From TrEMBL, chains A, B:
Pathway noted in the entry: Cofactor biosynthesis; adenosylcobalamin biosynthesis
Keyword vocabulary terms for this entry: Cobalamin biosynthesis, Isomerase
Top-rank taxon, per record: Bacteria
Family: Belongs to the CobH/CbiC family.
UniProt source species: Candidatus Mediterraneibacter tabaqchaliae
Claim: Isomerase is one of the keywords in the record: yes
Identification of the protein by name: Precorrin-8X methylmutase
Example GO biological process: cobalamin biosynthetic process
Domain Cobalamin biosynthesis precorrin-8X methylmutase CobH/CbiC: from-to ranges: 12-232
A molecular function GO annotation: precorrin-8X methylmutase activity
Length: 233, 233
């Protein structure tokens, strides 16, 4: 082997990576609390564009950590993001990860309505978890979607890493009052309606968001933002 | 909604994305056969760096498709890549996807040997599938790792999207003659030994490879290269 390897103990690899990222970011000033998220996105992608393109709504980290602490669950639009989220850590607080993309009823609804499975999977989330203030409309587990004063029912975080159509449908469901997410992680990737789908999320007034503006994002970025939050707890 | 959406039918979104990518790539000339792989990596990441950083060994696409056709299986270093690979399509030819990262014996071996779980998971692959010319050393399913003339036993493709330590161990196992992969997809991402781990793969003389030089890559890229190959069949 002609190539010189850096000698780093297994347990130190992530630490060393973050040191390199910190060095290369230089004197950058972050929105308070957001630094671990920005750095983990760079760690996941080796792409320093994430130092520029991430947008955070006011006090979003504080709000997201509060939601996770109350047992919020995560709904995502890909099995890859579901695989990447640290489910053990999430479960410590009572949350779990849902992805409805492979569900037969979602595929059927998409066919019937001429929409994408991603959009139909957001519909399914709304059906299962709509704001119900204690009234269960699912046999499994009643879930409110945003903190109501005095209400300790856990809420929902949406982590959208692939499909702009999921993000657009989510925007509509929020506007229609059918969902009130604790947090929207809006990081779909691609070329058709991706930029637009993220811009409309920034229009939402009362919904905390973390959005990667522009074309970039992905399931890996969606999962890593969830994990960055979990590792801050 | 103030933002103007492009009207594209669900079934047309991917096609339209690839048209945009093709437009933006302009007059670029690709190594024959590699164009769908490069474009799918850009599609997955919205990162045109993949037009520059992907390196292909000679006739790698032809060889990889041959391996898949003979029922090659895929070993990967993350559950995310496993989740992202089109397992239904792979199964049509007889292959399946393995990821040993969460296996208890892998965690144990890593602890014992002071290595990473990723490196230990490559060891496990070598133990399970080492070149055996028809002699099963696993009760489940004997697998050769590279085509032997007249030998139709399916082989192995390694798709490494996260851990440089996996790629380095894989390199060593090939050099030691314990594995002879049909293809190494070498696209770990990150900052510690990532660049080096990919450069050493380029030194392998008889192993077909697809490598993303530099720091970039990821589970999403590993999965999408597998899928690009599968969609070419």
């Amino acid at each position: 082997m002609k190539t010189e390897l850096e000698q780093v103990l297994p347990a130190q690899i992530e630490k060393r990576s973050f040191e390199i990222i910190t060095e290369e970011l230089g004197e950058r000033v972050f929105v308070p609390g957001t630094e671990p998220i920005v750095k983990r996105c760079i760690h996941t992608s080796a792409d320093f564009d994430y130092a520029e393109n991430l947008v955070f709504s006011e006090k979003v980290v504080e709000k997201a950590l509060g939601a996770l602490r109350r047992g919020a669950s995560i709904v995502t639009d890909t099995q890859m993001a579901k695989a990447g989220i640290n489910k053990k850590k999430l479960a410590q607080y009572g949350g779990q990860v849902y992805c409805f993309m492979s569900d037969e009823d979602v595929a059927e609804a998409a066919r019937e309505n001429g929409t994408t499975r991603a959009a139909a999977s957001m519909e399914k989330a709304a059906r299962m978890f709509q704001r119900n203030h204690g009234q269960a409309d699912t046999a499994d587990r009643p879930l409110n979607c945003q903190e109501v004063p005095g209400d300790e029912t856990p809420g929902l975080i949406f982590a959208i890493g692939n499909a702009p159509t999921a993000l657009i449908r989510l925007y509509e469901l929020v506007r229609e009052g059918r969902l009130a997410p604790e947090l929207i992680i809006g990081v779909p990737v691609g070329f058709v309606n991706v930029v637009q789908s993220k811009e409309i999320i920034l229009e939402l007034k009362d919904t905390p968001y973390i959005v990667a503006r522009g074309r970039k994002g992905g399931s890996n970025i969606a999962a890593c933002i969830c994990n960055a939050l979990l590792y801050m707890m």
